[in-house]
Amino acid sequence: MTDAGGLVLRYFDIPGRAEITRLLFTIGDVPFQDKRIPKALYPHLKPKLRLPFGSLPTLEVQGETYGCSLAIARYAAKRVGLYPDDALDAFRIDHFAGLVHDTMVTLLVVLYMDGCAVLRAKRLRRARRRIPQLLEHFEAEAVGDGSFFSTISWLDVYLFDLIHNVLLRFCNVLRIPFDKYTKLQAIYKTILCDPKIAAYLTRTEGPGMMAFRPRCTTTHS
């Protein structure tokens, strides 16, 4: 995008912990520079980057650089109107979004970890026991029709991110069945079938993810 409105998002060239912000800016049609850094180049580029907490992602806003993926995502949610003004409503959403975040980080550490194969296998076994319990909790608490609460919020986008970029993308590794969570499937499809999200995924993903996408019969503006 040519007019990025002073927003520069920097992260690796993977979905990871920055994808929620990319998705939010996309669904809200907020222009930003999406700076994707190849992992192999990161050690050489790191000394030149402004990293408030020593790691990516970062978001540059009008020349000032901020860290913390969850704080960045909340800022993006507010920018695009998917974060409620009411304090209690925001608290309810953050309550579940924090759980999504913790789940996401835990799984990403396992999926992208290098080194000890025994430790990775142990953490995978633990995840296969724990994640279905969390999914059942989300399924039981969801009350909306195609959204977690009565209206779409950034929580729905974050759930989509967890499902699409972790549970489905790494389904052969995680082996966590998803077909019984009908409410979560409806939330996933709501976000997937948004025209802006669909166009973004077509532009940024390879053909390998197409097999996981359900057919969109309706669209959401």
Automatic annotation (TrEMBL):
The keyword Transmembrane applies. The keyword Transcription regulation does not apply. Residues 86-208 form the GST C-terminal domain. The chain crosses the membrane at residues 104-121. GO terms for biological process: glutathione metabolic process. One of its GO terms (molecular function) is glutathione transferase activity. This is GST N-terminal domain-containing protein. It comes from Saprolegnia parasitica (strain CBS 223.65). The lineage of its organism: Eukaryota, Sar, Stramenopiles, Oomycota, Saprolegniomycetes.
